[in-house]
Amino acid sequence: xxxxxxxxxxxxxLCLINLNINIDVATCHCLDHQQFMLLHLKDNLVFNPAxxxxxxxxxxxxxxxxxxxxTCSMGHVIGLDLSEEFISGGLNNSSLFKLKYLQNLxxxxxxFNSSIPLEFDKLKSLRCLxxxxxxxxxxxxxxRWGLFYWQHVDDLLYMLVPQFGFVYEQHRGQRYRALRWIV
Length: 183
Known about the structure:
This protein is of the alpha/beta class.
């Protein structure tokens, strides 16, 4: 009877290991259309390959969820760190705005030297955004973007936020305290 228990425990252990491996593969493998959008984004960004530490390594081979600067969940891109890639130019008409599961975006320390794209409102899952020294200028359309849903918005001090006082007062005391950092 004891031998049956040992074999049963080994069987359960092997099943759990197999299940764990299958879950890991499902959550870590980049979906083809996600990889296509990232490569399209890369192709439309102006950056210096000699100074790039992330974008220069993005290519058709390999799993995009393992690329430097990319975070995935269930094969969908949920995080994108483009910081310090010395990107110049804008983000307009970019496949970036088709990454509908994107939650965290860090375009900090680049030189976009453009107005803030209105297409940011397409990123409905976006919760964290770091604009520090990204080179964007102009107004943030707070109502259009739904800023009060964001959990963290970094370094927007030099940008004007229309109706900011109203948005903040409406949501003060709730989990949207990060808005206090916007002036």
